[in-house]
């Protein structure tokens, strides 16, 4: 157990937020949500998770990348309030996963969502967004119109992140996203492509919801069936990711969190944190493996550090100058980071298949993986009457159905 005085405890807790910060703010910046609200809901969601799990699991919850494409589509086609309603419903779907685990243990989830389904779904999450990353990397407005300066900036951000991943030591190795953004931003300042006037004009203290309502990035949730059915199936991937993260933190601390407080409790906490975040206008929450890596590095396994990180995130949410800085990050800076990030997400999906020794020589497995990949990456959208399903969610549903109807042993 890490032992420290009061000030050191605070600094270490803030350090965990520092590790999560890059990914935390990147999701709202990509989806048009408010970064300050994302900070608030990450902190509040983490505290809610700790309340439900009786402060037994040292994890930090923040913005989930799995929902980027569904949020972008839903905002455009269903509306802002409808999107938040759909995201809140996706969080409540964790109640079903929690119930399945409570009744049948972890094998219940493995039965409905085996690696042959979850692996390609995770791959789709990364590959589905690949064109977005490329367009952002080579233009200042995300249109994809080639700009040489934009390409230089995105390349510097990408190379920085790669160098941190490959050669970073200790804490530095855990923050490739943040370092890529910082170096890319500094270079953008040198190149004179950053407009600093929004920072100068921003207030020091703001109530983020007032700003979000003004700029159209928040509206009260509307529970529209179309949006719910479109977004709901996407919860499959982060639910499986959650199981992996709980296993990882159990390994780090030497405690079996699958038993105490129980996987059903951690899933419940994650789901309610997601619904809570969505109701307040933040992106869905998920457990952050980067923070688990920091726990392993520092040996700071006391949950109090996660609470410190959570309260710090909540306080930063009201800092108007910080929100203004985040909104001035040039598009190609994010594009360069996303080339690596989305590729890494897809690679995690490949790793899921390899690690679980999914035999791709079997026709059954080959069919499931192939169909899920093409439906997801091709972004197939089906409309039956008022009901619309598409993209990642439809790919996940098709994978689940194929897993049930295709005979074993083929």
TrEMBL record:
A molecular function GO annotation: xanthine transmembrane transporter activity
Superkingdom to which the source organism belongs: Bacteria
The UniProt record lists the keyword Repressor: no
Keyword Membrane: yes
Ranges that cross the membrane: 12-30, 36-52, 87-105, 112-134, 146-167, 174-194, 218-240, 304-326, 332-354, 366-382, 388-406
Similarity field: Belongs to the nucleobase:cation symporter-2 (NCS2) (TC 2.A.40) family.
Protein name: Uracil-xanthine permease
Organism expressing this protein natively: Calditerrivibrio nitroreducens (strain DSM 19672 / NBRC 101217 / Yu37-1)
